[in-house]
Amino acid sequence: MRFINFLKSVIQEMKIVFWPNAKQTREDTSTVLGVTILFAIFFAVVDSLVQVFLKLL
């Protein structure tokens, strides 16, 4: 019985969930990929600088 109540509540909740359209999904995906690439570049540069600094020691 508890499982049935759980499923009913899940169905009710899924009806009020905001589902993004294809354009919003593409925009959000592009943002995430862009930020990920920027962070990767940043950390690669920092890593290279740290390596150069440590070699000087």
Automatic annotation (TrEMBL):
Keywords: Cell membrane, Membrane, Protein transport, Translocation, Transmembrane, Transmembrane helix, Transport. The chain crosses the membrane at residues 32-54. It is found in: Cell membrane; Membrane. The keyword Nucleus does not apply. Its main location: membrane. GO terms for biological process: intracellular protein transmembrane transport; protein secretion; protein targeting; protein transport by the Sec complex. It is a single-pass membrane protein. NCBIfam families: secE_bact. Component of the Sec protein translocase complex. Heterotrimer consisting of SecY, SecE and SecG subunits. The heterotrimers can form oligomers, although 1 heterotrimer is thought to be able to translocate proteins. Interacts with the ribosome. Interacts with SecDF, and other proteins may be involved. Interacts with SecA. Belongs to the SecE/SEC61-gamma family. This is Protein translocase subunit SecE. The gene is secE.
